[in-house]
């Protein structure tokens, strides 16, 4: 039991580092960048509050677990903004490989039964093929949109995002898992782009 607890606390202590990873997205008041720990917590709250937007058969408990885990790899990789102009694509092969390596290390801190279980859940979120994962991914795309709307454009202005880019990079993911949410969000976002 002692070895298992040592491993569990090693993982939990490592996960604390997520609070030091700054994201491009700001808090809704625009006062500072949010960190990835805050983002994960906020997404779990999104899942609780917006559960009525999930499709049939979606397990909100599983969605919340995915959202709590989904950005742990950023401890090693940092945040890769979806609208970044620096040429590093959000889902480039290099980014995906770095995230898989980070997942190996971070989930590998846990006892194998628990680490394998959480790693599988993280992979499900990344693949976004199950109803639970599609809804979780939708929320992961909605939250920064709302932060940008509330902060006067936030990273949209910083990265010179067009409405077409918003639709292709964000809207398709939201619509896939929560179509009514995308309908509502695009109505709110469209005027910002003129």
From TrEMBL:
Organism annotation: Tabrizicola soli
HD domain mapped to chain residues: 15-182
Record's keyword annotation contains Metal-binding: yes
Protein's name according to its UniProt entry: HD family hydrolase
Taxonomy of the source species: Bacteria, Pseudomonadati, Pseudomonadota, Alphaproteobacteria, Rhodobacterales
Annotated SUPFAM superfamilies: HD-domain/PDEase-like (SSF109604)
Superkingdom as given in the UniProt entry: Bacteria
A GO MF term: hydrolase activity
Pfam families: HD_3
TM helices/strands, residue ranges: none
Assigned keywords, A-Z: Hydrolase, Metal-binding
């Amino acid at each position: 039991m002692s070895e298992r607890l040592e491993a569990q606390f090693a993982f939990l202590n490592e996960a604390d580092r997520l609070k030091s990873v700054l994201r491009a997205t700001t808090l809704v008041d625009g006062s500072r960048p949010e960190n990835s720990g805050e983002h994960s917590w906020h997404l779990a709250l999104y899942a609780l509050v917006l559960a009525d937007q999930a499709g049939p058969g979606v397990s909100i408990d599983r969605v919340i677990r995915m959202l709590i885990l989904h950005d742990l790899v950023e401890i090693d990789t940092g945040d890769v903004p979806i609208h970044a102009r620096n040429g590093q694509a959000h889902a480039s092969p290099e980014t995906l490989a770095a995230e898989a390596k980070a997942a190996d290390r971070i989930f590998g801190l846990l006892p194998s039964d628990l680490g394998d279980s959480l790693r599988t859940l993280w992979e499900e979120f990344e693949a976004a093929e199950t109803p639970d994962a599609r809804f979780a991914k939708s929320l992961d795309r909605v939250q920064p949109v709302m932060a940008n709307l509330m902060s006067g454009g936030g990273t949209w202005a910083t990265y010179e995002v067009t409405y077409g880019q918003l639709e292709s990079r964000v809207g398709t993911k939201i619509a896939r898992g929560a179509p009514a949410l995308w309908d509502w969000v695009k109505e709110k976002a469209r005027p910002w782009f003129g």
